[in-house]
Amino acid sequence: MSGAVTVDTARPMEHNGIVVELVGDMALFYDRDSRSQFVHEAYALADPGELAAGVALFPFDFGVPHCPLESYAGANVRVRYVIRVTIVRSLMQSVVHEQELWVHVYNKPPAINNSIKMEVGIEESLHIEFEYSSSKYHLRDVIVGKVFFLLVRVPIKFMELALTRSESTGLPQAQAYTDTQTLAKFEIMDGAPVHGESVPVRFFLGGFPLTPTYHEGIKIFSVRYYLNLVLVDATDRRYYKQQEIVLWRRDPRRITRTRTRRTRVRLRPGSPPSSPPPPSESASSGRA
C-alpha cells in the first residue's frame, strides 16, 4: 500500500512534523463507546520545519499491511480503513485529513468442504430430503443441489429458495441486536410434486452484494448466511428448513484459465503442402 501526500500552501507554514497513519477500526452505530481500533501503523513524512509556499509532495509506503478484516458497512456496524495525514502545529490547530479505503481480504480455498444432506417432514404426511454439493462457497460460486420428495400427502402449492444474511451486533456484556435481510428469493417449483420426484437447484451467487462470513475471532459482531427452503401448501401453511453456508472471497489472481492447445504446422518455402494418402483398395471398393 503506497501513495503520496500533496500539500499545497499559499504562504510558508511552520510545523512540528507531518505524520501519515493507516488506521483500521470498527464501531456500532448505536453505541459510540464501542469503537475499537485493530490496525494502526504510522511514520513521519517530514521532520519539524517550515513548508515553503507552493506544492510539496511526500511519498509513503506501508508495504503489505496486515488487514485482518474486510471493509464492511452493515445495518448496525461499520468496519473501515483510512489513511490519515496530520500536519502538527503548536500554536495553531493541527491540519488533519482522512481518506477512506475499501479493503478486500482474499482467502485460501477451504481444505474441508463437505456436502450438506438434511431431511424435513411431518409424520406420515410429508418427508423431504435435500442435499447441496458443498457447504462453503466463494462469492461468485454456484450452489448446486437437489430436493427429493420421499413422501407427499400434503397438497403442495409451490416451493422457493431464499438466501438471507443475519448480522448480529453487541458486546458480550451488552444486549445483542440481530438484523436479518433477505437478499434473494426464487421459486424453484410450481405445482404439487409426486412421490419419488426430485427437483434440481442451481443458485448463482455472483449477482448479489455478498461479503465473507464473519463469526470467528470477532467479539463485536458476526455476519452469517443461510439458505431457506420454503414449501407452501394449498392452505398457505409454510414448511421450511434453514441451513447455514459459509462464504469466502477468492483471489482472482489465482484463477487458472484452461488454454486450448493449438497445433502449428510449419512449411518450408517452396514446398507444397502434402496431400492426403490415397484410399486403400479395400476402403475404395464398393458393393458388387
UniProtKB/TrEMBL annotation:
Composition skew (Basic residues), residue ranges: 258-267
GO BP term, pick one: intracellular protein transport
Region described as Disordered: spans on this chain: 258-288
Biased composition (Pro residues): 270-280
Family matches, as InterPro entries: Arrestin-like_C (IPR014752), Ig_E-set (IPR014756), Vps26-related (IPR028934)
Cited PANTHER family: VACUOLAR PROTEIN SORTING 26 RELATED
Similarity field: Belongs to the VPS26 family.
Protein name: Vacuolar protein sorting-associated protein 26B-B
Species in which this protein is naturally found: Thecamonas trahens ATCC 50062
